[in-house]
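Sequence and fold:
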Amino acid sequence: MRTHRPLLARATLAATVFLALAGSVEALYQTVALHRDSRVANPAVGVQRTGVQDERLRPLREHLPPRGVVGYASDGWSGSAFTTVEALQDYFLTQYAVAPVIVLRGAGLPIVVGNYPADSAAEPAVRRTYPAGLVLRRDLGNGVLLLEGGER
């Protein structure tokens, strides 16, 4: 009696390849849409925001270790993706401002940088709730926070 395993293996491989390609196409579509939206909203946003963000994040440098890895939390980070192009830009500008310290998305590190630009004009940082059990260590002003993360 003949088995159909080669046919089943080919079908499984084809389904896996199809799903991987579909996921890649969806990610590419979202990236292009976000990029297009950001160019329409403000074509020179990167140039204007770099200096402002660097100045806003400057006080953070003296509270971080000279080298190492810290976490990153913000309103624009959902835990798995950035919600807007500006949130992604804020993340990269935070990395730039605190280099050579490495900034990783998420709250699973002992030190977490909180980047909440809207907080500068909104509610005080001490009344805010933070993701994943983060605790406010220091409010540096302008929505820049030093938080304690989950791993201690």
